[in-house]
Every structure is written in structure tokens, then in C-alpha cells.
Please model this.
Amino acid sequence: MTNNSPLYDQIEAFLKDQLDAEAREAMRQAIAADPDLAREVALRRLEFEVAEALIANQIRAQLHTLRTEPPPEPPPDTTRTTRYRYFFWLIAALLGIAAIGIYRRYAQTSLTLPAPSPPPGPSRQTPARDTSPLPQARNQSAPAQPAPASTSNARPLALATELYQRPQFETLRSTQAAPNAPFEAALTAWSNQEYAAVLSALRPVSDRDPQHLRAATLRAHAQFNLKQYAQAAVGFRAVADTRTMPWAEEADWYLLLAMAANGQSGSSDFQTRLAQLCSDSGHPFADQALELRRRLRAGQ
Amino acid sequence: MKNPAGLSDEQITQALLSGVQQREAIFAYLYRQSGWREWVLRHVSQQGGDEPAGEDVFQETLILFDRNIREGRFLKGSALQTYFFGIAKQYWFNRQRRIRPLPLDPKYDRPSTDNPEQQTIQTEKQDMIQHILEQIGEHCQKVLSLYKLSLSNEEIAQELGLSSPEMAKKYTYRCREKFKSFVLSRKDICEHLDIRLRDDK
Model:
């Protein structure tokens, strides 16, 4: 029997005890007669056991958390909440009026005074040290860099943009986050193809944010779509080099595209990364990498 | 049927068959609000066990209960609560017997777990599973557990933060292959499971 046998499709049903008596008996006989099928069944059974052990560990971990954390607060008194809300809005309104008054006064003063001259010498303001291992979006509001247009790069650029598939990212949405949370706002901008808005929305996401790898990936994609290929390559490289799955593997592929689009397809870094990806048959983008290599070679 | 805290058997079952968040929510509900945990603690206490033992019985019962529901072993012959308590009694009884042997109530007797040889095999298998888990890595562990929960590719993508359901499909395939190659590369595991390698033919 070969792996194409319909019995191979029935292994799961057999292990879950979902076959009728006749099919079950047929399966038993087939397993006894075919060592390959017996091997597949044993492997699948072990996979089930391993997965169940994982699920059990997850339940144990959750119960441990529930045991150690205090029970949730009872729902607040709604009448008190309404009263607090009223006071909050009252204070907010008073503050707003005061702010408008101060602004108007300041505006009148600034019209009558000459503009202050900048202080001589270098600014005493110390720039914030960037400790992030991932590049934050800098010059996000700057105009997009024109794509490299030299004749030698025209083909890799065309190839990179052709092979680039714009991810949907809808699966990254959280069901619990507020819609105006930075990452959610960035995803909305992404779905509207407003790439500059994606970069703006992601600006507050720091490297300490649990979503910073997703944010870095999304930022690099936005830069790619804005034709800022050099920045996109920097972003994808940073994510790829963390080797944190699953983001690193997606970044491996998109880094190659960004580098190719940026005219770096002849660099040793590009060639090394492309060779690595092509040789890793288990990599989810191995097929695409092989296609890229084939077409780059065909174009030479 | 509704339990005292309000969720029906159908709602509990559906939540256990759903995605990760719904499952976590229902586990929290069963722990805090269903009254099932208190029942187990009381039962264990009445049978001479202490509170940590009661907590352990509740936890392991929940694991068995969840698996049985997902695998369709609950035949709806009773209320879900009765079924849960039955598993808890059985688990506590077996555990007690390992501590100090007692005469058995026939309806709880399951000799398969009492044979010392079988217990040794079971322990060896647990060690082997633990070893495999360490080898396949954290990422593939998550993928395999999500796959076992029968989540769709879209739900797996959402849980793993992947950009598309297609990526989830690729990752699932890849992790399953990784698992398979690791097992087949280990002669000791194959022998333990009586798996015949292709080269042996």
C-alpha cells in the first residue's frame, strides 16, 4: 500500500474511534498487513499524545495562575460610576475652557513680541538613547525615497515588486485591544493602504511592547510599499536576526525582496541569505526563494 | 441543564470546543464560579485528603474532562456536572489506592492503571513525551497543541500572530514533519513504540 491509499486519510478517525465497526476492522487488518501504515498510525498516535500533554500543561499553567491571582473585583456600583463620570466631564470641560483662555492670551502676546532667536551653539537637549535592538521608524513623515532606478537594478526591482505579496495581517488583530490602540490603528491604516499612516500609528510602539516584533514587521512592510526599500531592509533584517518564530521566517523572505529592490542582490549578504533560505526545505518561503534565485540567474 | 452559576451544559461544551480564549474563559469560570471546584475540595476533604490534594484532583479532573469532551467521549447520558464529579471521584479513588490500598468499589474498578508493569510503561512514556517536547521547541509545541484543538488555519494564524491562514497551514505541516523526523531519528523511541523503520525492512 502507498501513502495515497484512502486508509491513510482514515488514521485520524481510527485513532479518535470515529470509524464504524466494519471500517475499524478493515483498518485493523490493514495495519497488521502493512508495516508502513502501522508506522504511520504509531507516529500519529504519539503526536496526539504529545499534543494532549501540551494541552494539559497549558491547563495546569492557567489553573496555577488562577490560584495565585486575586479573584476579579465585583462590578462597580453603576450609580456611583455615573456620578463620577459626570464630575469627570465637568472637570474636563473646565480645564478645556481654561486651556483655550491661556492659548488666546499667549497668541496675543506672541503677536506683539519678536520671535526669540535660537540659542547659540549646539543644543543642550540630549537626544534620547535608542536601546532598542529593532530600528524604530525614523523620518516617518519624510517623503518616500525614490526607488533605485539604475538600469542594472531595474530587473531585480521589478522582480522583487512582482514577487512581493502584500500580507493581509487581519489575523494579527486582537479581539480585546481598543480600536485606537497603536497597533490596531496601524492595522486599520494598513488595510486602507495608507502606509504613511501605518508608520505614524506605530511610532509610540516601543521595543518593550509585547507586540514590538509585529510592529517592526508591519513597519517594514509599510516602508516597502512606500518604496523606502533601504529602510524596509533594515527593518526586516532586524526582525529576521532575532530568530524569533514565526516573525523571523517571514522577515527572511521579505528582507531578500527589500534588498533586491534596493539594488543589493549582488551583495554577499544577499547571496548568503538567499542560499540559506533555498537550502532550508522546511522554510515556509523556500519555494519562493528558489523561484527568486532562478529568475535572478535567468536575468543575468 | 444549567448548573447553579448559570452556564448551560451546551455552553460549557461549546466553549471547550472553541478557540484558546473561549477555552481559557471557561476554565476560569469552572474554577471560580461553577461550584465544581468547591465540590471536589469538599469530597477530597471528607475522604481524608487535604486542600492541595483537592486542588490537584480538581486540576487533573479538568484535564481529563476537557479531553473527553473534545474527543466526543461524553455521551450525554447525564448532566455535565455529574460527569465531572464522576471523573473526580474516580481519579481520587485511584490516587488513594496508590497511597494506601483499599477495597474497591466495583463501579470504579479499572485494572489497567493498577498493573505495576503498565505503570512503569506509562511513566517511561511520559518521560519520552517530555523529551520530545523539549526537542521540538516552544514554537512547534504551540502549533501542535493548536492543531490538536482542531482550530482552523485562520484561528491558528490569529493565535500565533501569523500574517495569513496559509502561513498557519505551512507551519502546521512543518512542525508535524519536524516531530515525525525527530521521532524516526531516535531508535530508542521507535523501539519503545514498536515503530518499524523503513531501513529495517
The longest helix of chain B spans residues 116-148. The radius of gyration of chain B is 20 Å. DSSP finds nine helices and no strands in chain B. Residues 134 and 141 of chain B are 9 Å apart (CA to CA).
